[in-house]
Amino acid sequence: MALEKKLLDLVTRKEKARLGGGEKRIASQHDKGKYTARERIEKILDAGSFEEFDMFVTHRCHDFDMQKNRPLTDGVITGYGTIQGRLVFIFSQDFTIFGGSLSKAYAEKIIKVMDMAAKVGAPLIGINDSGGARIQEGVDSLAGYADIFLRNVLYSGVVPQLSLILGPCAGGAVYSPAITDFILMVEKTSYMFLTGPKVVKQVTQEDVSTEQLGGSVVHASKSGVAHLTYVSEDACFEGLRRLFSFIPQNNTAAVPRLETGDPLDRLEPLLNDVVPENPNKPYNMKDIITLVVDDRDFFEMQPLFAPNIITGFARLNGQSVGIVANQPKVMAGVLDNAASIKAARFVRFCDAFNIPLVVFEDVPGFMPGTNQEYNGIIRNGAKLLYAFAEATVPKITVIVRKAYGGAYCVMNSKHIRGDVNLAWPCAEIAVMGPDGAVEIIYSEELKKATGDAARKKDELKEIYRDLFANPYSAARKGYIDDVIEPAGTRLRLIKALEMLAAKRDSNPAKKHGNIPL
Fold first, then answer.
1. What does pLDDT average to over the chain?
2. Residue 191 pairs with which residues in a beta bridge?
3. Which one of 12, 97, 244, 394 is least enclosed by Cβ atoms within 10 Å?
4. Is residue 463 part of a domain?
5. 282-294 pLDDT tens trace
6. Residue 196 bears catalytic tag
7. Are residues 94 and 64 part of one domain?
8. 393 contacts 366 by C-beta, under 8 angstroms
9. Global model pTM greater than 0.85
10. Mind spelling out the 3-state secondary structure of 383-444?
11. Is pLDDT of 460 > 80?
């Protein structure tokens, strides 16, 4: 009987904890089009797999009469479960309790699952929906945030860290997701900013709404903070599970493989005609990517930010790969500040977690102009160079069309340890394009040209094109391993990946490099 009473007490306590801030606040959460912290976990994880930690934790604050209100869980749900049968750790901030604000006890709960994730080598998912630091706890809440930030940094590159922003994430709280590998947001219900609209108005006199300042569209297209945005939380959860399918458990685990019915030797005759005969005419690089990868399934990251470069995940013969590609359809595929930063971060993620890199190249160079120079194109372009040069995973490049100047070097050339470098017959590999080169090399001849100067220039451009603006000059020197028929690109990539499966490469021993941040 005594045990039955204790068991009844246990059940009662757990039921109370599961109610969070109470029915009224749960209803308010639903009215905003948002799920509760627990509902989110249930929808993300495999059914019945969640095991909760620290359900009975409460805060320890006695100031401002806080001791009179000590709800169980203290505003964050933590624990572990599975996604697609694979172990993950998770925390979900509960806006129904103190607006999801962070206390020292709350932070300690998050820290526990972070440490456990690193210890056993499993990904960490953080669901953010919080008003920020719990003001009543003063510096203790700030200490809690800093303790979390430290672990975000220490475990970066050890286990994948994924952040969902499903409500407010403001002030110093933004720095935890900012350090993680991928950030997913939901339109109209999630936002991130360091200082809110009222402070902005007070300091800069700008009138700006919450959505304009830190909504999902802003961070997806302008700041580059968000990697993926969705119209609803349900769509976001599906996106998270899809992303999860491409990434490994930790930095020592094998990359996921999925069975595919897509033949590895599938030929794509359409690839022979996708690149226009006119070298200045744009086309959509995504058409090439989708024709080459398994089941035409390409999962793009940051599609709205720096769209002149494409990053994302796909599979080749079932193996997960990271794709980096110039996009001739946008700004001719030129590399600018934003594109360089976007691609560099993606390359470093793939390298940290053993995901092979496949590059489709069509780049006329780096974007010229004072705006680019003043904003650090030298420094930012060097980030992409650094990322590719530092990466030790299998690295394969296909030069589709243009590969000019320093951009040729940066886009995983043979000279920065590209393992297999292929080119299509229409590739142009040179210091610069024929137009600019002819003006420099043949300047005297052009001055002396009589009659039709334009015709003379065209003749000289053809001479230059025959000498340099083709793949064979680089192939003769071994900088290109082979010139291939576009239709057979898929098979060549798969065979190269199989050959590189046992690749071993390393960097000189050091504490860490000094990437030009």
1. 93
2. 168, 215
3. 12
4. yes
5. 999 999 999 999 9
6. no
7. yes
8. no
9. yes
10. HHHHHHHHCCCCEEEEEEEEEEHHHHHHCCCHHHCCCEEEECCCCEEECCCHHHHHHHHCHH
11. no
If you average pLDDT over residues 436-462, what whole number do you get? Answer: 67
What is the rounded CA–CA span in Å between residue 207 and residue 192? 17
Bridge-based pairing of strands 182-186 and 482-483 is: unpaired
Q: Are residues 234 and 328 in the same domain?
A: no
Q: What is the helix (H) or strand (E) element at residue 130, kind and residue range?
A: none
> Which residue bears the tokens 């230059």?
464
**CATH number, domain containing residue 118:** 3.90.226.10
The 3-state DSSP class for residue 312 equals: strand
How many other CB atoms are found less than 10 A from the CB of residue 465?
A: 17
Token pair belonging to 28 = 């308010």
Among this protein's residues, is 407 annotated catalytic? yes
300: left (phi over 0), alpha (psi -120 to 50) or beta: beta
Tell me: do 444 and 481 sit in the same domain. Answer: no
Lookup: tokens for 371: 């705006």
Q: Are residues 189 and 79 in the same domain?
A: yes
Tokens 């951009």 belong to residue: 407
How far is the C-alpha of 493 from the C-alpha of 485, rounded, in Å? 12
Q: Are residues 195 and 173 in the same domain?
A: yes
353 in the same domain as 475 = yes
**CA–CA distance, 460 with 455 (Å, rounded to integer):** 9
Question: In angstroms, how far apart are the furthest CA atoms of the chain?
Answer: 111
Mean pLDDT of 323-346: 98
Domain that holds residue 347: 269-432+470-499
Average pLDDT value for residue range 159-185: 95
Tell me which of 100, 171, 214, 381 is the catalytic residue.
Answer: 171
Phi, psi dihedrals of residue 56, rounded to the nearest 5°: -100, 10
- Of 121, 157, 172, 224, which is the active-site residue? 172
User: What would the 3-class secondary structure string for 221-253 be?
Assistant: HHHCCCCEEECCHHHHHHHHHHHHCCCCCCCCC
Task: Say which DSSP state 56 is in.
Answer: T
406 is catalytic: yes
Residue 469 among the catalytic residues: no
Measured CA to CA, the distance from residue 216 to residue 220 in angstroms comes to 6
Q: Is 220 exposed, middle or buried (0-12, 13-18, 19+ CB in 10 A)?
A: buried
374 burial via Cβ count (<10 Å: 0-12, 13-18, 19+): exposed
Per-residue pLDDT tens digits for 46-62:
999 999 999 999 988 78
Query: Which residues lie across from 395 on neighbouring strands?
Result: 357
